[in-house]
C-alpha cells in the first residue's frame, strides 16, 4: 500500500500549493511575505531597456517563468505581468481568479547579439509542458495557459516551425501541443511585489516545492544556455 499512498500524498500536497490565492487574505499574505523577505535587486532603467528587444511568453505561474528566463544568457531583464486578454489594467486578483481573459505572462528583454528569438522559443517550450491545456503543474485555469506571442510574421514563423519540428520528432508522443500562437498586443506589468518573486521569497512554500524544482529541471537540460553565474 505504501507505493500507492505516497504518490497520492505528493499529489495532495501539490494540490494545496498553488500560485493562485484562495481568498483575499492569501493575496495579502503574498505581499506581506515579499515585504518580510525582501532582497534588494537592481533593475535596469527604462533608458537602458530601450537598447534591447522584447519577447513575450505565458507558461504557467509567472513567478516560475520569470526565474527561468532570468537564468538565460543574453536576457537582460524580465518582468511578470498579464497579457492575452482585452481587459485594461488587470490586477492579480482578477487574473488569478480567472475573471479576465488574460494569462500570467512575462516580458523578456534580451540582447539579440547573444541570444536569438529562436533560442528563446526553445527555452519556452523546453521549460514547461505545452501539451497541458489550461494547466501547468498545480496551477489550473485559462490564466495559466501556454501562449507564445509574436510581434511580426518572422517571429510567428519561427514559433510555428519549431512546433512543427517538435511534432515531427514526436517529442510528446501522442499528446498534442496546445500552445496558442498569438499576436502580441499589450502587456500589463504585475504589481511590484510579484517582480523577482522567486529570488525575494526563497522560503515561500510554492517557490520551494514548485518553482525551484521547475527551474532546476530547466537548468539541467539547458546548461549551455545559462548565464555564467547561474548554477
From TrEMBL:
Catalytic site: 61
A Pfam family reported for this protein in Swiss-Prot or TrEMBL: PMSR
Keywords: Oxidoreductase, Signal
Enzyme Commission code: 1.8.4.11
Major enzyme class: oxidoreductase
Domain Peptide methionine sulphoxide reductase MsrA: from-to ranges: 54-206
A GO MF term: peptide-methionine (S)-S-oxide reductase activity
Reactions accelerated catalytically: L-methionyl-[protein] + [thioredoxin]-disulfide + H2O = L-methionyl-(S)-S-oxide-[protein] + [thioredoxin]-dithiol; [thioredoxin]-disulfide + L-methionine + H2O = L-methionine (S)-S-oxide + [thioredoxin]-dithiol
Signal peptide: 1-21
Superkingdom to which the source organism belongs: Bacteria
Family classification: Belongs to the MsrA Met sulfoxide reductase family.
PANTHER family per the UniProt record, alphabetical: PEPTIDE METHIONINE SULFOXIDE REDUCTASE, PEPTIDE METHIONINE SULFOXIDE REDUCTASE MSRA 2
Function (record text): Has an important function as a repair enzyme for proteins that have been inactivated by oxidation. Catalyzes the reversible oxidation-reduction of methionine sulfoxide in proteins to methionine.
The protein's name in its UniProt record: Peptide methionine sulfoxide reductase MsrA
Organism: Flagellimonas chongwuensis
UniProt lineage: Bacteria, Pseudomonadati, Bacteroidota, Flavobacteriia, Flavobacteriales
Originating gene: msrA
Amino acid at each position: 500500500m505504501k507505493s500507492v499512498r505516497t504518490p497520492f500524498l505528493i499529489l495532495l500536497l501539490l494540490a494545496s500549493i498553488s500560485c493562485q490565492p484562495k481568498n483575499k487574505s492569501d493575496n495579502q499574505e503574498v505581499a506581506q511575505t515579499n515585504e518580510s523577505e525582501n532582497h534588494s535587486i537592481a533593475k535596469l532603467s527604462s533608458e537602458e531597456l530601450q537598447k534591447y528587444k522584447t519577447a513575450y511568453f505565458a507558461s504557467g505561474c509567472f513567478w516560475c517563468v520569470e526565474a527561468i528566463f532570468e537564468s538565460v544568457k543574453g536576457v537582460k531583464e524580465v518582468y511578470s505581468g498579464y497579457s492575452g486578454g482585452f481587459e485594461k489594467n488587470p490586477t492579480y486578483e482578477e487574473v488569478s481568479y480567472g475573471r479576465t481573459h488574460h494569462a500570467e505572462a512575462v516580458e523578456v528583454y534580451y540582447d539579440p547579439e547573444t541570444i536569438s528569438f529562436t533560442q528563446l522559443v526553445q527555452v519556452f517550450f523546453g521549460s514547461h509542458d505545452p501539451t497541458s491545456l489550461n494547466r501547468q503543474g498545480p496551477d489550473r485555469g485559462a490564466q495559466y495557459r501556454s501562449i507564445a506571442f509574436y510581434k511580426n510574421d518572422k517571429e510567428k514563423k519561427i514559433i510555428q516551425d519549431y512546433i512543427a519540428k517538435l511534432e515531427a520528432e514526436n517529442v510528446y508522443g501522442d499528446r498534442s501541443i496546445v500552445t496558442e500562437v498569438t499576436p502580441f498586443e499589450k502587456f500589463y506589468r504585475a504589481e511590484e511585489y510579484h517582480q523577482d518573486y522567486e529570488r525575494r521569497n526563497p522560503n515561500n512554500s510554492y517557490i520551494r516545492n514548485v518553482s525551484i524544482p521547475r527551474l532546476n529541471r530547466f537548468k539541467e537540460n539547458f546548461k549551455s544556455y545559462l548565464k555564467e553565474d547561474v548554477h
